[in-house]
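Hi support team,

I'm filing this because I wasn't sure whether my run with adenosine-5'-diphosphate finished correctly. The job status page said complete, but I'd like someone to confirm that the output block is well-formed before I use it downstream. Pasting the exact inputs I used:
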Amino acid sequence: FNDKLEVKRQAKKFIQQKVSDFKAHPIVVEKSTSVYNAIVQLFLEDVGTLYAVDTEGNLAGVISRKDLLRAALGNKNLQELPVSVIMTRMPNIITINSEETLLEAAKKMINFHIDSLPVVKEVDHKNNTYLLLGRITKTTITRAYLEFMEEK
Ligand code: ADP
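And here is everything the job wrote out:
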């Protein structure tokens, strides 16, 4: 019984850690970048998701592996097709703030069936303007878990 309580206490301690302590660098492309270049970036950076920003550096879209595969199946000229046409755009992007917890990040990724969350700071809520600060992925959570277990 005590063991169970202790496990729960530790799990709580883990999951209540802040996003700010675990966020990784976002891999970013301009929203005018071609789908072809985005695919190259995906391989070069070894990531599953790219974020598109506008000229001011604000978050404009999310481009996942499936988005790129779908575009590639479309038989279009990928060198001419901008990622802005195929990405998931604001206001449909699920984001997270630095001050939120790993629990909230995990819940959002599971509930919305997505692999990553852009970590943002709100600039202007009305205009959906968010500064992109980082990313949280399912890998981030797994890595955080390993680190947590190794510390103990
Ligand atoms: P994959 O395409 O590798 O399965 P995801 O499951 O993350 O990657 O993406 C599935 C779909 O959800 C894609 O169309 C993608 O654009 C979209 N998506 C991914 N992350 C987010 C997010 N944070 N907010 C909104 N949509 C997202």
